[in-house]
Predict the structure of Glycosyl transferase, WecB/TagA/CpsF family.
Amino acid sequence: MLEGGTEPRTATGTRRSAPVIREASCCGVRITACSFEDAVAAVIGIPAKGDDEAPVTDAGSAIHLCNAYTLALADRDARLKSTLNTARFNFPDGWPVARLTRQRTRLSEANSQKISGPDLFQAVLSAGRDHDVKHYFLGSTPEVLEALERSVRKAYPGVQIAGVESPPFRELTPDERAEQRLRIIASGADLVWVGLGTPKQDWEVERLAAEIPAVFLAVGAAFDFLAGLKPRAPRWMGDYGVEWIFRLVSEPKRLWKRYLVGNPQFILSVLRNRGH
């Protein structure tokens, strides 16, 4: 249990033999509709669409967690929209995107759920121990990564952390990119969790997935939450779609534009892209 008693939304009980995974277009971006349980299974490499399809870990794959801010940015940035639309999965991270996805796929709430980045991170760390999954943490500062690794090892005994890396806060040189690629490959990591902030992390996930046979996931502030360095909103706020208020009050200088400008932009984008 991390973050002062917040537990990951993991699935318990027997998995369905036929997972339900569909897609819906939200603001022109393909969003994945599925249960939280099936999202976890897909990430750790269990075939998501039937036994005849190869697991996601057979090749380099990009996975994004898309909230309203991400889609608002993508609506105004053709490059970001293209990046998201070529990804393996774009999970709905946030109540507005999850609800819109559910409406457009006409799936039940059980089969089309919100996939929060921190919840997915925790659940995969836990479930991955039974599947020999090796993790790599890429992003943030050395101090955050040190606290994250300590917290994760304590919460999930037996978890395999293949490596951690805090890249410089600038564009990498070609030589640095090549060295980074070799480090990740040499680590044997299956899943590389990237926490660099939107949209930088989305560019990096796309780039790395094209070069390395692993799964790369853009998870935003999940590192800070799991490291215990930032408070997370109570679960009920996330369930009612008002988690953003808690985050805005916690970090007004950093997040005011994301919520006070990004949320209205998301609404306008939904209205402009009805049916798309």
Summary: The longest strand covers residues 61-66. Confidence is low (pLDDT under 50) at residues 1-17, 47-58. Residues 83 and 203 are 7 Å apart (CA to CA).
